[in-house]
Automatic annotation (TrEMBL):
Residues 7-142 form the Nudix hydrolase domain. SUPFAM superfamilies: Nudix. It is an enzyme of class 3 (hydrolase). This is 8-oxo-dGTP diphosphatase. Its EC number is 3.6.1.55. It comes from the Bacteria. The keyword DNA repair applies.
């Protein structure tokens, strides 16, 4: 009898920066829901729908949540074997570097505030616990 846990559901996130080669600012988004996460700051993104690739899901989520189109860069590699970041026992997130190419970021859905943070300001917001180690990796590259 196989007792292995169910596979982790895929989530995608974007480390939206001002420049993919030499980033100096990172976009943080404050959640409005669910209640357990409301008020916490995160990297924008969301769940990957069935039949969707990570890239397709991230483009869709950023259009819905922020009203922007982005250029994606490389993956911000996480500690799991597949390069994802654990989000509790149920989800794992693939995070991409991203740069806005069309539109102005706005908190359209699931967020009530956005902030561009410099390397000195990165920890001026209360990041959701799962995003803290990701922000630590991003900090190393932010000029």
């Amino acid at each position: 009898m196989d007792e292995s846990p169910p596979p982790l559901r895929s989530v995608v996130g974007a480390a939206i920066v001002d420049d993919l080669q030499r980033p100096t600012r990172l976009l943080a988004a404050r959640r409005t829901e669910p209640p357990a996460l409301a008020g916490g700051w995160e990297l924008p993104g969301g769940k990957v729908d069935p039949g969707e690739s990570d890239v397709e899901a991230l483009h869709r989520e950023l259009r819905e949540e922020l009203g922007v189109e982005v250029e994606l860069g490389e993956v911000v590699r996480g500690p799991l074997a597949d390069g994802r970041w654990p989000l509790g026992d149920t989800f794992a997130m693939t995070v991409f570097w991203a740069r806005v190419t069309e539109g102005e970021v706005a908190p359209i859905e699931d967020h009530d505030a956005l902030r561009w943070l410099t390397s000195r300001e990165l920890y001026a917001v209360s990041w959701l616990p799962a995003d803290v180690p990701i922000v630590g990796v991003i900090a190393d590259r932010l000029g």
